[in-house]
Write a structure and sequence with these properties.
globular; binds FE2/S2 (inorganic) cluster; Rossmann fold; binds zinc ion; 6-stranded mixed β-sheet; alpha/beta
């Protein structure tokens, strides 16, 4: 996924996955720093930020904190007042900042704490809906290029249960709370279905995910260009890779100024 000497940036949310990942990397001797994006969600962003900052202090590594309000002039609740698609836009804004900052600050790789439960349930969702463009790019390590930094999900083989146990044993203080704004209804259904399958047939999650990586991903990935809706371009304002220019973040920024 990355080399020992790479500078690693960890996307930190204050939850068990990202903090365990950060702790694990640092204890293995990686130069891993954190990045936290303050989305401006009441009763959620502030405690998450505090937990992340305390953790950074405890392990003695820098944490970059990005305030959405400061950077863009609006928050996720502001976005929610304007559009029903705020949750998927929130995901895109986070990905935008992670890439933008990782590039700007010279990190070689950006890692996130996605676990096996996340990966298996989102894979199930992608298969049920035949989201070919996602299936063609769903891999735990994506190489750098075209304005993107390398991305990796080092915890993709560990279950949420295993990570929770790890966090407990290491004495990591994390937030259990989920974002109060995210509807997540369909995502939870896929997660429940995967849990039921796992209960009846232990090992299903890991097999489903790993067999996809070994057997199905190469077939979908070969056609990745065909599944892309549009070739990528570069945003003329911020310089980030984008589907059209100005990119969606620069457009939103303008809209909120108006
Ligand atoms: Fe994005 Fe909740 S974390 S909408
Ligand atoms: Zn832009």
């Amino acid at each position: 996924m990355f080399r020992r000497q790479d500078r690693v940036l960890v996307g930190v949310s204050g939850g068990k996955d990202s903090l365990s990942l950060w702790q694990g990397l640092v204890s293995l001797g990686y130069q891993a720093d954190g990045i936290f994006i303050d989305l401006g969600i009441e009763d959620f962003s502030l405690p998450s930020r505090r937990v992340s900052e305390n953790f950074a202090e405890k392990i003695g590594r820098p944490l970059h904190v990005i305030s959405m309000k400061k950077e863009l002039g609006f928050t996720i609740p502001d976005l929610k007042n304007r559009t029903q698609k705020y949750c998927s836009l929130c995901g895109s804004v986070k990905r935008y900042f992670l890439n933008h900052l990782a590039r700007k600050l010279g990190y070689q790789v950006l890692v996130t704490g996605h676990n096996l439960d996340d990966e298996a349930s989102s894979l199930l969702g992608n298969v049920i809906n035949w989201h070919l463009k996602y299936l063609a790019r769903k891999y735990p390590v994506l190489p750098e290029g075209n304005g993107f930094v390398r991305k990796a999900k080092p915890l993709c083989r560990f279950t949420a249960f295993e990570i929770r146990e790890y966090a407990k044993r290491k004495g990591i203080e994390y937030l259990e709370d989920r974002c109060p704004l995210s509807p997540e209804a369909t995502r939870l259904v896929y997660a429940e279905v995967m849990d039921q399958l796992e209960e009846k047939m232990p090992g299903t999650k890991l097999r489903f995910y790993l067999d996809y990586l070994r057997k199905a991903y190469p077939i979908f990935h070969e056609k990745v260009e065909d599944f892309m809706e549009k070739p990528l371009t570069v945003c003329e304002i911020c310089g980030e890779p984008a589907v059209s220019s100005p990119c969606f973040v620069c457009r939103l920024k303008e809209e909120f100024k108006a």
